[in-house]
């Protein structure tokens, strides 16, 4: 089998890729600094966990009717 054959067998749709990522969870982290003349004007730190929620992992917010 050639290398091209392996690539055609491994193609995923975007929905399948998102499903796999959310099943395991995704961590997004980044820093953004707006600086003019060596003076920091705005700094944004981003740390997020994106994951699917089911019965085994409760939602972090309260249920409306509970």
From TrEMBL:
It holds the Pfam family Gas_vesicle. PANTHER family: GAS VESICLE PROTEIN A1, GAS VESICLE STRUCTURAL PROTEIN 2-RELATED. Its main location: other. It is found in: Gas vesicle. It comes from Streptomyces roseoverticillatus. This is Gas vesicle protein. InterPro entries: Gas-vesicle_GvpA-like, GvpA. Belongs to the gas vesicle GvpA family. Keywords: Gas vesicle.
């Amino acid at each position: 089998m050639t290398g091209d054959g392996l690539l055609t067998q491994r193609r995923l749709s975007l929905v399948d890729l998102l499903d796999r990522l959310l099943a395991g969870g995704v961590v997004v982290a980044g820093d953004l600094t707006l600086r003019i003349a060596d003076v920091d004007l705005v700094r944004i730190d981003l740390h997020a966990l994106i994951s699917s929620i089911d019965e085994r992992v409760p939602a972090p917010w309260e249920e409306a009717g509970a």
